[in-house]
Amino acid sequence: MKVGMLGTGTVGQALGSAFIALGHEVMMGSRAAANENAVAWAGREGERATAGTFTDAAAFGELVVLATRGVENEAVLRLAGPANLTGKVLIDTTNPLDFSQGMPPKLAIGHTDSAGEQVQRLLPAARVVKAFNIVGSGLMFRPDLGGLRGDMFIAGNDDGAKATVRQILDQFGWDTIDLGGIEASRYLEPMCLAWVTHAARTGAWNHAWKLLPAR
Amino acid sequence: MKVGMLGTGTVGQALGSAFIALGHEVMMGSRAAANENAVAWAGREGERATAGTFTDAAAFGELVVLATRGVENEAVLRLAGPANLTGKVLIDTTNPLDFSQGMPPKLAIGHTDSAGEQVQRLLPAARVVKAFNIVGSGLMFRPDLGGLRGDMFIAGNDDGAKATVRQILDQFGWDTIDLGGIEASRYLEPMCLAWVTHAARTGAWNHAWKLLPAR
Question: Does the distance separating the beta carbons of B194 and A184 come in below 8 Å?
Answer without folding.
Answer: yes
